[in-house]
Write a structure and sequence with these properties.
By secondary structure, the chain is mainly alpha-helical. It has 2 domains: 65 residues, no CATH class; 132 residues, Glycoside hydrolase/deacetylase (TIM Barrel). It has 6 helices and 5 strands, in the order H-E-E-H-E-H-E-H-H-E-H. The strands form 2 sheets. A 3-stranded parallel beta sheet has the order 3-4-5. A two-stranded antiparallel sheet has the order 1-2. Helix 3 links the parallel strand 3 and strand 4. The longest helix is centred in the middle third of the chain and has 25 residues. The radius of gyration is 34 Å and the shape is elongated. The chain starts with 5 loop residues before the first helix and ends in a 7-residue tail after the last helix.
Length: 244
């Protein structure tokens, strides 16, 4: 903290040896004879003991104030990196088990329902999603990617109905892996999912409120998003979580 005692720096005649008043971490004055001439010169005899005490007290007060501000600053939350990785598993001795009815293979079909919940400039995102698109464009931030939008719109307009008909005609069960916002915006599809649940052909898995990255969220924000998704799916589907 250079030239803290400005009054002293302006007192007394100019000396050949330029002094700059600096205060170290302990609040004591020290001489810096290599300072630039642009600083105020101060002769050695200019500082009285009483003034030095006052300057040291001021420096100590400033240091204490800075420490208090640093202590009040909220610390970023520590991320819980559990569970630990298991690279061994059962190894060469897997457990013996059998699937129901002697089946040798278990298959789960999941039908993703994301259309209308993916990142999109119209929903306030910086850019449209480029994930899962056959030919994402190089649209700059803030500009809609109409190719990406049309691919997702094909899913909700045509694709999902073809898939649902194929499963129903064969009596095959599946999981509707649904983003809550998508079913909010697609009321006819929400009704079809409700019918599939009632007929025992569908169950529902929450795919979040939107198709968004939870890894970068703070814990409270993520809890809020999950609660929002549960409330939305309950409104769209009724009692969507069915326990045996």
């Amino acid at each position: 903290m250079a030239c803290a005692c400005a009054r002293l720096c302006n007192e007394g005649p100019l000396a050949e040896d330029h002094w700059v008043c600096t205060i170290n971490n302990e609040g004591a004055l020290k001489k810096n004879s290599n300072a630039s001439p642009a600083h105020h010169p101060m002769p050695p005899a200019a500082a009285s003991p009483l003034t030095l005490v006052a300057v040291a007290a001021a420096a100590a007060a400033l240091t204490a104030f800075a420490l208090r501000r640093r202590q009040r600053r909220p610390k970023p939350p520590r991320r819980d990196l559990r569970p630990k990785r298991d690279l061994v598993g059962y190894g060469s001795t897997p457990p013996a088990f059998t699937w129901p009815n002697g089946a040798r293979l278990a298959v789960n079909f999941a039908i993703n329902i994301e259309e209308g919940s993916e990142p999109n400039v119209l929903d306030g995102d910086s850019a449209s999603t480029a994930a899962l698109c056959e030919c994402p464009s190089d649209a700059p931030p803030g500009v809609r990617d109409l190719a990406a939008e049309s691919m997702f719109e094909y899913g909700s307009r045509v694709g999902v109905w073809r898939v649902l008909r194929a499963f129903r005609s064969r009596g095959l069960p599946a999981t509707a892996f649904a983003c809550a916002l998508a079913l909010e915006r697609l009321s006819e599809l929400a009704a079809a999912v409700r019918a599939g649940v009632a007929d025992g052909l569908l169950d529902v898995c929450c795919h979040g409120y939107r198709w968004e990255d939870h890894a970068g969220m703070r814990e409270e924000e993520e809890k809020s998003r999950i609660a929002q998704a549960v409330a939305s799916l309950t409104a769209s589907l009724g009692a969507w979580l069915v326990l045996p």
